[in-house]
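Input.
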Amino acid sequence: MRLISTLFLCCTAHSLIAQQFDTTVYNNELSVYVTNSSLENLDFTYYLEDTSLDNAHKIHPFRHSSSAWLDQGLIMSPAMALDLDLPNTGIFTQAPQTFSHGLLKSEDIKYYKSGASRTNLKYSQGASDLLYIQTQHSQNIFDRWTAGVNYHRIKTQNQFYDNLPGFNEERMTNVFGFQFFSHYVTLNKNYEVLADYAWNKSTVQETYGITDVDFFDTLSGRQKQYASSAFLPDAENLMSNRTVRVLQLFRPGERKIRVNDTTQIIDTTYGQIKEQWFNEATFRTQANRFIDNAYNENIYPIRYVSATTHDSIFERTFANRFGRIGEISSRLRYKAQLITEWVHLNQLNAHQGNYTNVQLAGNLRRDMLLRGKMILNAEWAVIGYYQGDWNFEGKFIHVVNRDSSALLEASYKSIRHRPDYNMQFFGSNYYYWNRAMDKTNIQQAKTTLRFPRQKTGLELIYRNITGYAYLGVDGLPIQSSNNISYYAVRMKSEVDLGSVFHSSIDLRLQNSNADELRIPDMTAKVSLYLEGHLFKKNMRAQFGVDGYYFSRFKGYQYDPSSRMFKLSNSTTGGYPLIDVFLNMHVQTMKLFVVVEQATQGLFEEDWYTLPGYPMVGTAVRFGAEWRLFN
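Output.
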């Protein structure tokens, strides 16, 4: 920890000393970047960094990515999006990753073009002793070699429970993340390597909610502080994840540029690169540990091991992807890869598993003559835990008008997927199961109509699901025998009224014909704000409100022992969640003040994000983000 703090201070001091020029206007060369995915897929376009004020005040990951979610009411607590994502069929999955939204990940790294050093500092603090610190620093080490570090720290304190050890100093969520990354490319671009190491650690004080909801609802304002008891007064979940990843890109051959009739020079650009080999090696270790030092038999009536629970799951995975991407013709592109995984799993006093997973994957993309594209994706698991699984997708994209003002996309996807490991095998002090499950089969048809100029889109989704796996009210796994149908209509739109008033909406209407697949009938995310210049155009400001809503439904409860969401007989939702924000931008600094949960207490009941877990009351939070360049 002391090393991380020293590194943070050094990066800050280096950037403060080095900032020699006026940065009222961003220099594009300092603000363009590439990613792991773009380089692997022969996309050598430099993306321009988003320096707008949009979302500057948002800390919670789901406030960025989702219109509706369930969590324990605190940032970085275990969470579940209500968008009903399809299963990830590319990698081994131990269980639904309820902690994953707080991880620093390889796919999020930005490799900036400029050789100048750059640092991005973000700090936020507010009610409930919320503390958020993030720093990102990268710089050129030698010619064509760039390295950097990312660091974040997020914590929140106890506000409601009076029976926790050191209750008024108890940290409810405590997240730490450190990431080192490096990028090197040869002069002729024949070889390129991107590597990163990440260490993520998350600790959550588990309570299973407040014991007396009816009494809690009679209180208001500050009366709620330390006025309730937790079902689990001394329990916590720990997740630790370490990942090392190396992506290598090989482009054999000699590429030259003709200067004149007699002279050619080596091409040092990406312009002529049409194909490449790639290899990605990843080593990951992950540990999940649940500790309960104060047993509550009303929550967990069965005990298998001891009076004190130390339930742990350890995973070690080495994965390797090897493949080639290129062109068959000017209109036809391909990507083929072989994916292998070696997985070792160990659950304390329970199951151990060793799996060698081999998967073949391919992609074809054809540009059509009539302003369209056809894309085919295929994945097939040859051996291992997922043997016999597949993921096939066909997609057609048509440009309706010659000026690209309307795009029509139609796709069909077929997935055959074995349920996650912990849905079939799990052992702890409170649960034990060993159940063979059939494959889950998903058929999806989706049609999307987008109007890029109007920033508007309409999406229609239909899914047919058989063999759906879930946890029942008792926390035990069940595989549905029903043929489940899911329908959804989604509309996204951004409307600008003049140059000052702006709005955006993300609305989803959805329905399921089965009780085991529980979803709210409607979810919505709305943003309304004014934006303009102040103080003789020396400051750009944004003032507005964000609204989040999902209709009331009988949903889910989080189970700390299994770290998964199970069905619940209680209902949640039906209340709007409103944030009022003020964002300001001066030179390379953003400042923001936000009043979160501004509508808390205005309804007959408080907002419960999960049964028994009240949302933290109206909270004022402030923060700053500063970009520094050398």
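The first strand starts at residue 32 and ends at 34.
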